[in-house]
């Protein structure tokens, strides 16, 4: 059975590969983190910006593309002069004079879907919710509740599938087949996606590039659900372990990965996504070493 048959079989049992990937924001996460909270509130386009010195930028988001994430790098002075600190929701309707100041933070594609923007500004963070065109009025939680929960997320580290959890997944997968090891490089794709975003310093560009890598790695964790595994490596490289009873159609695998990541980096930039076979491993130790080193 090839990968296409494998995907078809999975679709008969539940959401297919692409459908599952579209739900990346709520899958594979532990209760009590930012993404779980977004799922509970059914937010499909949302971002958390945090202060970094004299700047703010997105650190976590759902439904935003790479260019918009990069464009979020902005001055503290702008936000101090625009939003009410520790206040209630600040809401802006797209197309009004008041909303125009925020257009600079979105790619053209993202801006085309915006109907309203809702913000809450806390001491060193900003929550932004996007209401889409033709979408029902966003049900905004009470501001006091939002501020309390977001503050909790900021100081609680996210749980990641490492150690015992990774080992358990690999052991389970090896009962099905040897581990197929892959390198997924998104470096060129991300660089292309944000090439036109101006940064005053190279350090800011690198900071936002790394954050986009982390966003893409989260999507990949949903594409490659347990017992399959994926871990973010260095310099835009994601390491993937894929288990399949029959020979893997690598071209089809890359096609589905690229299709899934196109919304993040754009159609043209997605051409720079490269999947490379790293080998096949029959044991737990070697597979974990591949995932965890470097």
Q: Helical content, roughly?
A: 25-40%
Give the low-pLDDT segments: 1-31
In whole angstroms, how far apart are the ends?
33 Å
- Give me the side-by-side strand order of the main sheet: 3-2-1-6-5-4
- Average of pLDDT: 87
Task: Give the number of helices.
Answer: 12
The class by helix and strand makeup works out as: alpha+beta
| Total number of strands | 10
Tell me what the structure shows.
- By secondary structure, this protein is an alpha+beta fold.
- Helix content is 40%, strand content 21%.
- It is built from 12 helices and 10 strands.
- It has helices spanning 3-13, 17-22, 34-40, 66-71, 76-80, 108-111, 143-155, 164-174, 187-193, 202-223, 250-265, 284-292, and strands at 46-52, 55-62, 74-75, 90-93, 114-121, 125-132, 179-185, 229-232, 237-242, 274-281.
- The strands form 2 sheets. Strands 3-2-1-6-5-4 form a 6-stranded antiparallel β-sheet.
- The protein is elongated and about 60 Å long.
- It starts with a helix and ends with a helix.
- Mean pLDDT is 87; it is low at 1-31.
Set out the fold topology.
Elements: H1 3-13, H2 17-22, H3 34-40, E1 46-52, E2 55-62, H4 66-71, E3 74-75, H5 76-80, E4 90-93, H6 108-111, E5 114-121, E6 125-132, H7 143-155, H8 164-174, E7 179-185, H9 187-193, H10 202-223, E8 229-232, E9 237-242, H11 250-265, E10 274-281, H12 284-292
Antiparallel strand pairs: 1-2, 1-6, 2-3, 4-5, 5-6, 7-9, 7-10, 8-9
